């Protein structure tokens, strides 16, 4: 009888768990890659999202042939189809009772209209299946804000890890970070690369400088009347660098037609792959000897060769096409993918003759780079001249600038096209073996490689923790973070770290806590509320990067804001309208207690009426 009762209790426990799993409403974010496919397959087998439940999977990527060796929901006939919708269809075939919704969106600030309060409030939890840290950190912040469990996992070859984040119990994914990656010396990137990783990082830096940062500065200059005043307050030589980039974007390199973009791209090709290399060899000739009697170009220093532009060289034209189209997109000019048209225009462009110059200093090592940066004096005359040379925003005839944020997964946006061409041209300069598009995308996009066996193990460990979540366990010791290395083999498990506790007065709080303020109030009423209700004097108040109030703020500006509703203060300072989907604002506080001591306090969730 004892055995029978035990068996019956186990049976009913299993039935209860099945019922709970079928009611789960969850999301797989970044969801239909290597780990995502394994998770979705497991979810289908467990019956998660069946009956009253639902799974939302989103992935903006298309299926590539190289995915088929580890993403087993896909077949050769699925190549170039959307990953999310294909995966949803396949797991629906595995378990027809499942409710699956597929999206093709990136989850981030740009899609918060879709993944808004209503979306997250309907979720029971989130399972990440991502290939980069930035996206993980963003999703982690959203789960903390909405107080949703997060199942985090990742692989690197034969290594894998899982982490469970439980509201009010554990720390979040962002609470601890891996040591920073070893960076490549600046001098190696600028002048002395010896591996394809160096040229790819150089190409990424070029992309950021040419198509994002300078365009971003120019866009801010046009939109913000206080841009120059704020820029001049930056430390060191930054004001000069920022204003130079604005002038470059709005005056020196501003195109009016797509032909101008092609001309700019051709000139830039000449500068990067011929002129700069010739200048480097002028400073350090091929037969140069160091003070110790050793050849300068030896060891890791590869002697470069300037490239001669060849209109019939596919790599050369690939660079022109990608660079010209990216330049056009910044200024809202219609793009052109026709290679024959572009080659015809390029053939008629005459580039200026370059002669190496004496007196040009090129740093041989990072110490010289830091020395030159540290001793650099600000050229105040040039600063004044730049302000005079910049066109006034109202003189730009409504010009709009569109900075290009690097996106590795969209093969139609020219981003990876530019990176591959720029990197391989640089590699040709230094006789470094070129990398194909796949390898370049992996390195430049910092994509973590996946092995099917590691992925399946990690997805299985994630599902163990999901079962515990479904049971509603509140004992931290029952949850486990996992670490595996199949090459050893090694399997290790540890209890999640509990959420660190902080304290103000007698109130303990963790990252899962916050102040809830509902209904509109003025800035003055907001400050008084915290003083009267929580005995906290707000010394600084911010929303995102916008400083709304501080004790050192000019009195006139402070008084001007005191009578405004908080939402109006946010709009006034940020110079942006609140999107219709925004139902609450997040404020961060710096506070003093009654004794005038700084105290750490939670953030504020300010719910709009």
Question: How would you describe the overall organization of this protein?
Answer:
The protein is of the alpha/beta class. It folds into 3 domains: 2-180 and 448-494, 3-Layer(aba) Sandwich (Rossmann fold); 194-366 and 397-431, Ubiquitin-activating enzyme E1, SCCH domain (Arc Repressor Mutant, subunit A), CATH 1.10.10.2660; 503-607, Structural Genomics Hypothetical 15.5 Kd Protein In mrcA-pckA Intergenic Region, Chain A (Roll). Helix content is 43%, strand content 13%. It has helices at residues 2-22, 34-46, 83-94, 117-121, 133-146, 186-190, 196-223, 227-232, 238-252, 258-283, 314-330, 339-346, 366-374, 380-389, 415-429, 437-444, 452-471, 523-533, 555-562, 566-574, and strands at 25-29, 54-58, 100-103, 125-128, 150-156, 159-165, 481-485, 490-494, 502-504, 507-509, 515-518, 537-543, 546-550, 584-592, 598-599, 604-607. α2 links the parallel β1 and β2. α2 (34-46) runs parallel beside α3, α2 (34-46) crosses α17 (452-471) and α10 (258-283) crosses α11. The longest helix has 28 residues, at 196-223. The chain starts with a helix and ends with a strand.
Number of helices: 20
Percent range for β-strand residues: 5-15%
Give the count of structural domains.
Answer: 3
Low-confidence runs of at least 5 consecutive residues? 1-5
The Rg value, from CA coordinates, equals 28 Å
Structural class: alpha/beta
| CATH homologous superfamily assignment of the largest domain | NAD(P)-binding Rossmann-like Domain
**Reported CATH architecture of the largest domain:** 3-Layer(aba) Sandwich
CATH class of the largest domain: Alpha Beta
Taken from the alpha-carbon principal axes, the silhouette is globular
Record the strand order, biggest sheet: 3-2-1-4-5-6-7-8
Overall pLDDT confidence? 89
């Amino acid at each position: 009888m004892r055995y029978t009762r035990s068996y019956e209790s186990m049976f009913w426990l299993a039935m209860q768990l099945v019922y709970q799993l079928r009611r789960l409403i969850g999301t797989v974010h970044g969801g239909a890659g290597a780990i995502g496919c394994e998770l979705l397959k497991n979810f289908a087998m467990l019956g998660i999202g069946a009956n009253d439940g639902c799974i939302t999977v989103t992935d903006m990527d298309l299926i590539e042939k190289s995915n088929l060796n580890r993403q087993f929901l896909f077949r050769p006939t699925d190549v170039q189809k959307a990953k999310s919708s294909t995966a949803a269809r396949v797991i629906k075939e595995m378990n027809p009772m499942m409710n699956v919704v597929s999206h093709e969106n990136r989850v981030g600030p740009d899609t918060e209209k879709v993944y808004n309060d209503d979306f997250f409030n309907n979720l029971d939890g989130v399972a990440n299946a991502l290939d980069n840290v930035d996206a993980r950190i963003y999703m982690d912040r959203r789960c903390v804000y909405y107080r949703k469990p997060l199942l985090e996992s990742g692989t690197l070859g034969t290594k894998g890890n899982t982490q469970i984040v439980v509201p009010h119990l554990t720390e979040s994914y962002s609470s601890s970070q891996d040591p920073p990656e070893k960076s490549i010396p600046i001098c190696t990137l600028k002048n002395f690369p010896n591996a394809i990783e160096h040229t790819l990082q150089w190409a990424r830096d070029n992309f950021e400088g040419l198509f994002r940062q300078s365009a971003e500065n120019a866009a801010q200059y046009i939109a913000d009347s206080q841009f120059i005043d704020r820029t001049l307050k930056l430390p060191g030589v930054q004001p000069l660098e920022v204003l130079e980039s604005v002038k470059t974007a709005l005056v020196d390199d501003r195109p009016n037609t797509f032909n101008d973009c092609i001309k700019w791209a051709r000139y830039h090709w000449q500068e990067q792959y011929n002129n700069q290399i010739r200048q480097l060899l002028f400073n350090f000739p091929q037969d140069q000897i160091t003070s110790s009697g050793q050849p300068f170009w030896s060891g890791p220093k590869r002697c470069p060769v300037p490239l001669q532009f060849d209109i019939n060289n596919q790599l050369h034209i690939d660079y022109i096409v990608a660079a010209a189209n990216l330049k056009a997109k910044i200024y809202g000019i219609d793009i052109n993918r026709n290679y024959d048209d572009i080659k015809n225009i390029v053939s008629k462009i005459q580039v200026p003759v370059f002669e190496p110059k004496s007196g040009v200093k090129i740093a041989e090592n990072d110490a010289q780079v830091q020395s030159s940066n540290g001793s650099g004096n600000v050229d105040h005359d040039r600063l004044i001249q730049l302000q005079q040379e910049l066109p006034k925003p109202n003189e730009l005839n409504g010009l709009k600038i569109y900075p290009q944020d690097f996106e590795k997964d969209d093969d139609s946006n020219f981003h990876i096209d530019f990176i591959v061409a720029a990197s391989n041209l640089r590699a040709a300069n230094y006789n470094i073996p070129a990398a194909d598009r796949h390898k370049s995308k992996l390195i430049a996009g910092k994509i973590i490689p996946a092995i099917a066996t590691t992925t399946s193990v990690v997805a299985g460990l994630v599902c163990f923790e999901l079962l515990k979540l479904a049971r509603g366990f509140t004992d931290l010791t029952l949850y486990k973070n996992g670490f595996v290395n199949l090459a050893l083999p090694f399997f290790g498990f540890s209890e999640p770290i509990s959420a660190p506790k902080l304290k103000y007065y007698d109130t303990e709080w963790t990252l899962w806590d916050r102040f809830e303020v509902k209904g509109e109030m003025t800035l003055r009423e907001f400050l008084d509320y915290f003083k009267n209700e929580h005995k906290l004097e707000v010394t600084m108040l911010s929303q995102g990067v916008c400083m709304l109030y501080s004790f050192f703020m000019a009195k006139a500006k402070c008084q001007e804001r005191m009578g405004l509703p908080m939402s109006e203060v946010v709009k006034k300072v940020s110079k942006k309208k609140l999107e219709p989907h925004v139902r609450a604002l997040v404020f961060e506080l710096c506070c003093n207690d009654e004794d005038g001591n700084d105290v750490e306090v939670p953030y504020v969730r300010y719910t709009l009426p």
